């Protein structure tokens, strides 16, 4: 999920850093104080059938990918990685694909925390009409916090025209504290 040049307004968010309010979600998909809305089997079946669709907002696309990666082997081996790959933009897939290559990359040290996180905190989306960024901070099983900046765009042509898809995911360091300051 390699980066590409960000628009100027997004670049300032990345370089300067911004403190966003975070919403916390456990690895099982429940909000920290919420109640699960689906049973695990039903959730797995629904996740497995997900495809890019104009009805999904950029925030929903990020959540779909994070949740799928966190349950990477449900309902079968690497199912979550397959779902995340479906939501990668065509430009992203040209760099990171095919699926086998994407799977190796996501299983490597930079992205592996996405496959075994305990909790996800979602930053506020920063969006224009056709581009968006969202920071996600994952807490690993050993309590370490790892950040990822998702860059998305609304596709203009082809099969996925008007669908939000992920162009890149960049890992960043998380400063500790009650309200992390996101810095690359």
Task: Describe the protein.
The chain is an alpha+beta fold and 184 residues long. It has helices at 8-16, 40-48, 58-70, 79-86, 90-96, 99-107, and strands at 23-26, 117-122, 126-127, 131-140, 145-154, 164-174, 182-183. The protein has one domain: Nuclear Transport Factor 2, Chain: A, CATH 3.10.450.100. Strands 1, 2, 3, 4, 5, 6 and 7 form a seven-stranded antiparallel sheet that branches. Helix 3 packs antiparallel against helix 4 (79-86). The longest helix has 13 residues, at 58-70. Residues 1-24 and 28-38 have low confidence and may be disordered.
Overview features:
7 strands, 184 residues, 30% helix, single chain, seven-stranded antiparallel sheet, alpha+beta, disordered N terminus, Nuclear Transport Factor 2, Chain: A, 6 helices, globular
Number of strands: 7
- Work out the helix count: 6
Number of domains: 1
CATH class: Alpha Beta
Radius of gyration: 15 Å
Described by its quaternary structure, the protein is single chain
Distance between the termini: 16 Å
Largest sheet: 7 strands, antiparallel
**Helix-strand string:** HEHHHHHEEEEEE
CATH architecture: Roll
Which shape, going by the Cα principal axes? globular
> Do you know the CATH topology?
Nuclear Transport Factor 2, Chain: A
> What's the CATH superfamily, by name?
NTF2-like, domain 1
Q: Give the fraction of residues assigned to helices.
A: 25-40%
Return the average pLDDT rounded to an integer.
81
β-strand percent reads 15-25%
Class by alpha and beta content: alpha+beta
